[in-house]
Each structure stands twice: as structure tokens, then as C-alpha cells.
Amino acid sequence: MTAFLTILAIGIFGLLIAGVSHIGISRERKALLDARARLAEEAAKAAGPKGASGRDLPLSALVRTGGRATQAAPKHYRRVRGK
User: Fold this and answer.
1) C-alpha torsion 70→73→74→79, nearest 10
2) Which of 9, 14, 44, 74 is the most buried (most CB within 10 A)?
3) What's the pLDDT at 47?
């Protein structure tokens, strides 16, 4: 019975550590996305009112649009052969 309680305590402690780290990582990720969005807004203001195409915007500006650039070139995929 003592071994069972020890294993249970270790498992609960592991879940506690995982929960705390998940919360910390999600806060950091949110802060990074907010910082990138602020940089994109500043870049858009610096670009001027004429509106730049998707190729002219920095990568951080694509975060605000959800990764979509309105006039970006289409993706070309290479065929990879297995060995």
C-alpha cells in the first residue's frame, strides 16, 4: 500500500509540474505574438498609406493577418523521392 501511495504522489507531482509549465509557456507564447503584432503595426505605419504588397511586408507583419499575404506568390512544392 505504501508503494501505491508513493507512485500516486509522484504522478500527481508530475501533473502539477506539467500544468504549471503549460501555463508559463502559453503566457510566453501570447506575449511573443503580441510583440510581433505590435511590430507589424509599427511597420505598417512606417510603410505609409499607399499599402505595401505581401512581399514587401516583414515576416512579423504576416502574424497579424494570420499568415496570409494578399499578393504573395503561390507556393511551389518540390517532389521529394524516398530512398
Assistant:
1) -150
2) 44
3) 76
CA distance 34 to 45: 17
Low-confidence ranges of the chain (pLDDT < 70): 48-80, 82-83
Q: Which helix (H) or strand (E) holds 10?
A: helix 2-47
All cell numbers assigned to 32: 511573443
- Whether the CB-CB separation of 65 and 45 falls below 8 Å is answered with no
Q: Taking the CB of residue 40, how many other CB atoms lie within 10 A of it?
A: 19
SS (H, E, C) 14-65: HHHHHHHHHHHHHHHHHHHHHHHHHHHHHHHHHHCCCCCCCCCCCCCHHHHC
